[in-house]
Structures are given as structure tokens and as C-alpha cells.
Fold:
Amino acid sequence: MALLSARDLTLGYSDRTLVRNMNFELNEGNYLCIVGENGSGKSTLMRTLLGLQSPLSGKVLHGDGLSAREIGYLPQQTPVQRDFPASVSEIVLSGCQNRLGRRFFYTRQDRELARRNMELMSVSDLAGKCYRNLSGGQQQRVLLARALCATRRLLLLDEPVAGLDPRATTEMYQLIRRLNREEKITIIMVSHDIAAAVSYATHILHIGETVFFGSREEYLESRAGREFLDPQREDRMNMKVRKKKQPVRPLAGKEGKA
Amino acid sequence: MIAKLSLYMSYPFVRYALIVGILIALCSSLLGVTLVLKRFSFIGDGLSHVAFGAISVASVLNLTNQMLFVLPATVLCAVLLLRTGSNTKIRGDAAIAMVSVGALAAGYLLMNLFSTSTNLSGDVCSTLFGSTSILTLTRQEVWLCIVLAVAVVITFILFYNRIFAVTFDETFAAAVGTRVDACNLLIAVVIAVIIVLAMNLVGSLLISALVIFPALSAMRIFRSFLSVTLCSAALSVACAALGILISILAETPVGSTIVMIDIAAFGIFALIGHFLGD
Structure:
């Protein structure tokens, strides 16, 4: 059975349906990229997969003995975190919170796990540093280490490169690919970055007026993929976005203090 | 000065005030970081007004131990406010503003209409600014304060890891299966208990200062959650002890003296933090 599958999933809010009857399957070791325009329901799908929101109809099935708690999550950063006094090791250790169960405190094994994941994400030398003084790329690596404490099977990444400079973006994508290939971790990534999606992912889920799900090769051949990848269309989309007076996302944000 | 101090120390009510004051300062500083960063500070402020309303009701009813009424009422309001906070129909902060201003008005009205006291404005003033209540605690109230304070500290230590997780990243915590709602409820109840306790020390209008200043001061210098928490607890206790002693010697109101010392400490910490660099 697939690690994670969606059956006839209909998403949205009580007054508005975003996506109808969506089906897809994810097997162990896949790298799924979820793409789509703003407001198409990407975040809603993400919240549904995490069990934070229930679908209007249909269901999300977990297979291969994956429990709902075993999904590691890399959320987008919140304003609270920007001035939060917390050291890197405290944050990474908090990824072990789903191992607490009925206990109140972390065990030596939990601390060891946090240490190993900090090493894996090469943030060990930052362990005592304050999170808010790190660069954007370092912060994302810390949050990845935290997510790895929560799971070794499935990672859900929400816009993992938002606000990173081009170099940090490339490093982040390479790191995610390494986790997928070497550590055999299944990846689900929500991204605006369609070019990166088609170059790194094994599968694509495109949410929009029509829903597409298939392998990367199938996507490149499909109508949805060709339209979405067409640069002129991208321009038209931006125009449309500006007319709606929505803020246009900058291509690369500031990197913060190193 | 030492002689004057030791003379005062021989009175039991001064010793009570010191013990209770230090314990209250300790509890109130613990959740400061959470309150500041979780945007819960307005809940703290709202609840302190609710506690004022509850005290007016208690004094109109002529209850001997007001805390037994004020505590459940405030905890109930904390739970209700948290519920409306997640409801999208009335925005959380608007609901809190409504409840807190309403409680303040109703409390003052009740005191005016039904108070048996001859010194009404004095009563209101001491409830708002806690001018002498710490020195007039009965033995029973002192014990209640001690029990509640110890309960708050133990709860905080036991749930320290969960409070950190929920404060730092609620979405992540919910995604990996931590019961975020239960944790938020626990935080709100603890805040309510702290507010009722702290009312004895500084009065209902100055509570936020007692909760927030030590945490903000510690955040100027320290960089990890644990060190900030420990520092703000130590700082809060030191400021409270110093404030109580000064107010005894200089015969100033206890609450505002403590808060002024907290503010001075914040200034010093901010200065040190500035020179240490970020």
C-alpha cells in the first residue's frame, strides 16, 4: 500500500470549495512537489495532510504503518519566531515532542537524536547560538533538523526556500535532494518555484482549475504543465496578480545577518 | 536603617508580605516570555480587569476570603476568552476588550451602589494599585497564596518542554500530535491564577508590568529560552524583595515601588544588552 494516499479529496471552507475530488498516491522514497497558483488550495491541502484541518469530503489514508504523528513538518516562518529567544539546540530538541508521550522531560536518547540531526544538517557548531541571529538558510536547516527529530519517513515542506537568496536556495534544494536519495526520506514540497519543482521532484501535483497528478515526465508532456511552464503565461499571471492588488512576492528576499 | 528594618521584621505581617511577595514575583515571571511572544499579553491585561470586577462582587457580597470567589471567576473567564480567541466571528482581541472594559465598569458600579465601606475611593484605589493589601493578608490568605504559587511553579516545570514547543511553533506542535488546545488552556489557567495572586501584591492595573518586565529585561541579554526564564525569575524575585523593603522603609506604596524597580532593571539590562551587541 502507498505511504500516503488521497481518495476523492474535496478541500475548502464551508462557504467555498477549492479543490474537488482529488486523488493521488505517494510511495516510500517519492519526491512530490505540489504546485499551483496563489489561492488554489495548496496550503489547505498541506493542513489537511497534517491533520490540522478536515476535508469537506474524501479522506487521507496512511499506509505502510505510517502514523499521523510521523510526518515531519517544515512550516513557513512566523513573525513570533523572529524575536524568540531560543537556542538552536532547544529548537531542534523540541522536534522530539512527539516522542514524549506521557513523559514530561526529554530522555538521553532524545538528546542524542537531536545531536545527530544537527550534525546531519551541519548546524552542530551553531548549537548554542540564538535562533534569531542566524541567516535565513541556517534557520531553515535548524527547522529541518527539528522536523527530522519528529520523523525519519515523511517530510512536508511548506515553501522551504521562501525568502532565501539564490545561493542559499540552491543549497537548500540540494540538501532536500540528499535527504530524499541518501536518507530515503519521502518528501512532499509545496513550492512556487516551478522550475525547481520539475528539476528535483519525481512526481508533480498541480492544483488549479484542473488537477494534475503524475510523474515529472508526464507533467512536462501535459497541458497543465506546458501552460504553467510557459514564461509568457507567467508574465500574464503577474499582471493579473498586480491588478488584484496583492503583494508580489520578491524573487529573493534578504538573507539577514550572517 | 538596619535597626528600623529588623524592628519591622519582627512583625509577622511584614514577614508574610515578604514571603508572599517573593513567591508571587517568582510565579509571575515564569510565563512572561510566553505571554509576550504568544501575543497573550492582552489576555493577561483583560483578565486583570476581570479580576477587579470579581473582587467588587466579592466585597459587595461581603465574603471573608475574596480569593475563593475571584480565582474561579477569573479562571472561567480565561477559558472563555481563549475559546472566543479561536472563533473567527468575533475577533479574539475585540472580545477581550469587551470583557475587560465591561468588568471594570460593572465592578466600579457595583462598588458604588452597594458598598458598605465609608472610604469608597480608597477601596477602589487599593484594588487597582494594591497599595496595602499585601500587608493586610490574613494567615489563611497567606497559606492560599503559598499553595497556589508552589502549584504554579511545579506545573511550569513539568510542562516546560510543552510550553516551549507550543510557544515557539504552534503549527509544528499540532502537526506532530501535541495537544495544542490543551496546552493553551493550561497556559490560560495558569495565567489566571498568577493574576489573582499578583493582585495582592501590585493591584490589578499593575499586574502586566510584573509579568512582562522581567521577561523583557532578560531577553535583552540572554539568548536561550532556559536562560531567559531563569534570569527573569531571579530578576523578578530580586526586584520584588528590594521593592517591598524600600516601600517599608520609605513608606511608599508596595505595588508601584516594585514596578518602578522592575522598570529601572529593564533600563539597566537594555543598556548592558546594547553594549554587548546583538
The longest helix of chain B spans residues 225-250. The mean pLDDT of chain B is 84.
